Every structure is written in structure tokens, then in C-alpha cells.
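Notes, p. 3: input format for complexes.
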Amino acid sequence: MTTSRIPSASAIDLPPFVNEPIFPGVDDLKMREAFPRAIAEVRKQLGRTYPLYIDGRDVTTPNTLDSVNPADPDEIVGKVCQAGTQEAEAALDAAERALEMWRDVDPSQRAMYLVKAADSARRRMFEYAAWQVLEEGKQWAQAYNDVAEGIDFLEYYAREMVRLGTAQDMGSYADESNFCFYQPKGVAVVIAPWNFPFAIGCGMCAAAIVAGNPVVFKPSSQSSVVGHHLVEIFREVGLPAGVFNYVPGPGSQIGDLLVDSPKVTVIAFTGSMSVGLRIVERAGRTPENQASVKKVVCEMGGKNAIVIDEDFDEEAAIRDVLYSAFGYQGQKCSACSRLIVVDNVYDRFVPKLVEAARKLKIGPAEDPGNYMGPVIDAKAQRTILQYVDLAAKEGTVLYRSAVPDKGYYVPMTLVEGITPQKRLGQEEVFGPLLSIMRAKDFDEALAWANSTRFALTGAVFSRNEEHLRTAVRQFRVGNLYLNRPSVGALVKVQPFGGFKMSGAGTKAGGPDYLLHFMDPRCVTQP
Ligand code: NAP
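Output follows (526 residues plus NAP):
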């Protein structure tokens, strides 16, 4: 075989991937010192105007959206220029132009942009986390770990591209040799949610970019100031113009345009089931001027369950259920929304859990003494409060906490008497409401755990080895956790994502992820 014809990522010397250290705890002296200082520094910068970023240039629009602190909506975090049709089209054009050059850049060179972007984010760790405390109401730990996850995506996908950037020898047949390699799909649209405002957008953009696809990035309207951090890091590392474009704007106004555009080949979306299904449907339409079948990389909602078996570590279960259900106010796709307790231990365990919940403090996330903060905005607050009302109708409310007067707070709520037939047994609440279910035995608990349209995360607390083995086979979710919280997946070691109505099985942070952004090609030669 003539080896010089075989595409190959140039050799670069990257140390093996290691996860960024996660938040060490609120009592850590470095955190105690760095967080208040970073929050104070960020506060001095509040209210700035954020332009769009198209074709390597800042673009301002007269139309801006105020992004506010959910703990104090009078505090304007930033004013974000909003893209309309014209700007969205300009960004797509810029990405299309950049594709001609970017798709043929050596994969190792593309990877190095990500490694440098990771360095840039690492240097701003506390600053970026502090913005999340103020714009999204994230607790110190949640905000810190979000930035760490974004850095992990950059570092991991860089190495993955070097691995995948070298063609694979497929062997020979009848005196002919064969090799396969990957090429980028084309222009990518990335549409991100607000709840992991740096990590998720960063992960989707990094994957698309390193695989050779220029990106048009639409952050969530509720997290567009943090979304702008990607502009900072990609600009700092000198990513060529048009390879990354930032176009914040209302999904209801520019979403369809981005999704429907014939210039787009891949759409990476993370968000709700309803928007995800709409994107999948629209991406399936192919106007005559569209050259490729669109690929949708899609991660959606969850209705995650934790099962409590007869024999289990009670202290760990109480701590981890509370964290899974109420950490970041239950606003994680992986949050525990259903607690399924087997009958034998129900009356012993549930009262202790409620007692522990009563001790948790609620208030602004910038005070590390508060376990739970505000939800993201007034709309989320209204929706969750409707579910809290529903809880009183569908079950018996065991605890409904008090909340601060100001800010978008909702009560921490625990309700029992929920079954799979009830709405609270099926619908994603995306807030701090835990539906508790009494199952007659472990088999019924597992059947109930699987009884929703979603299949994202789940956890089991049990010391029964046979039950744990059964759960591995039959608790059908993308990420199953045994004797630990249902949240907190780490890049590389815990590839994340679900199936059924939770997503298309695409597993962010895993070895298959970059393949969604590339098309395979095969060459045969005598
Ligand atoms: P969302 O309302 O679906 O919004 C997600 C993104 O879609 C936002 O950028 C939004 O823009 C945009 N959008 C809205 N309408 C659109 C349209 N017609 N066309 C194209 N884009 C449109 O979700 P969210 O409230 O941000 O996030 C919470 C949801 O995400 C929950 O369901 C959660 O479970 C899920 N989630 C899943 C994962 C996972 O990995 N499976 C991870 C995180 C979150 P605007 O903000 O401008 O409306």
C-alpha cells in the first residue's frame, strides 16, 4: 500500500487525558477565598452589552435582551444583542465560507485550538464560575464543576480527534488494499440549554469544530452572558474567522431558520423534549437546494428515578437522594424526580428523608450556606408552582419549604402517594419537586422506574448483589448509578446521555461522540 496517500493526523505530543479536579467542598480554604473575590470582581462588570460574534467580528444589534440574576431580578447581569434573521443568515454564510478551509486543516492542528481554549478557560475558572452563580443561580460547586466539565470536553475531544484523524487500514482483498477515514459533515448549528451554561454549549461546539465543522452557536436566552465565554476563549486562541459564530436570539424566532437552512448539515441540540422533537421533524424535510441529509445530535429531558431497596446504606441514601433531587434546584436533566421505595423500608426511610430535607437552607447561591437557590426565571417559577399545586391534588405533600420573598424561588417539595398513572409519575418538572412512590417489592420498583417515556439516568441503593445485577440489565437508562447519586457524570469515564424520549443515544463525552459530526470514506487501491 502507498502509505503517503493515507490521511493521517500529524503527530503531536499530548499527555493522556485526565479529568479536571472537581469542586473540593465549601470548606476548602482556596474556595472560601477565591469565590467571594471572583463574585465581587464579576459584579463590577455587570450590565455590559454583549455583541454577536460573526465571521471573526463583533456585531451589535439595536435589539438587546436583559439577562438578570434569578436571586434578584433587579440586578441586570448583562444586555445581550439579539440576532434576527439577517444576522442568523450572515452567521450561516460565514460558517459556509469557513468550511472550505477548515475541513482540510490537519486534525491535530484543530485539536490544538481546543487544548489552548481549555487553558484559557482554566485560567478563568473562578471568574467563569462566578458568572454562573449570578446569571444562573448556580451554587459554588455546581458552577465550578460546570466550568471543569467544559474544560474536560475541550481536552477530551482534542485527543479523540487526533485518534480518529488517522485513517484506518481495513486490510487487503484480491491484491487491493483499503483504508477508511473521516471527513467533517459540514456547517453545524449548536443549540444549547441554560442549565449547564458553559459545559454543554462548549462540549457540542468543541466536538463540531474539532471534527472540522464550522459552528453557528445559539445559546439559551437565559444564559447568553455565560454563552459569550466561548467567544472569549475561541477568540483568544485565534480560531480562524467563521469557524465559531455566536448568535444569541430567541429560539422561537431564529430557531426554525437555523434548523431549516439548507446550508446546515448537522444540528447539535440539548434541551427539552418538545423542542428536540420539533428539530428532529423539521430537519427531516429536504428542500431541493439542500445537498445533504441532516444529522440531529439530540439530548433531551428526563424523569429520573432512584430506587431504594430493602437493604441499603441509609445515611448515604438520604444524602445522595437529597443531592440528586435538590442540587441546583432539581434543574438538571439527570436530577432525581421520582423516589421509588420498596414497601418494607418505606415507613422507616421516608420520614427520615423528610426530616433531613427540612434542615436544608434556601437562598441566593452566592452564599455557600444555602443548599438550594432560585430557579432560572419567572416562567420556570410559574410552571413549577403549577406542579406544586398538582402535588397536593395527586398525592400528600410531606414537606413544602418556605422561600425568600424576592427572586425566582419555588419551595422544595416532597410528595408521596404518586404512582406511574399520575402526571407527577410521568412528566418532567425540572424543579425541586420529588415524587415519592411506594412499590410492593424490588421488581415492581424496577418496572415503575422504566415506566416513563424517558430513559436518561437512574440510581439504585441496595446491598443485594442479585438485585444490583438485575438492575444493570433491566433498569433501562443511559446512565445507571449504583449506590450513589443519579447526577454528576464525568467526561470520558461516564459518557452521558439517554435514549427513548431522552435523546438519540449520542453519549456526550464518550468515544463515539465525534463520529456524529463526520462522514466515513473508504479508498481502495491496487
Ligand atoms: P429548551 O426550552 O428546549 O431550550 C433549549 C434551546 O432550544 C434554547 O437555546 C432555546 O432557545 C432553543 N429553542 C427554543 N425553541 C426553539 C425552536 N423552535 N427551534 C430551535 N431552538 C429552539 O430547554 P431549556 O429550558 O433550555 O433546558 C431544559 C431542558 O433541557 C430540560 O428538559 C432538560 O432535561 C434538558 N436537558 C437535557 C440534557 C441532556 O443531556 N439530556 C442536558 C441538559 C438539559 P431560547 O432559550 O431562546 O428559547
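The chain has 15 helices and 22 strands.
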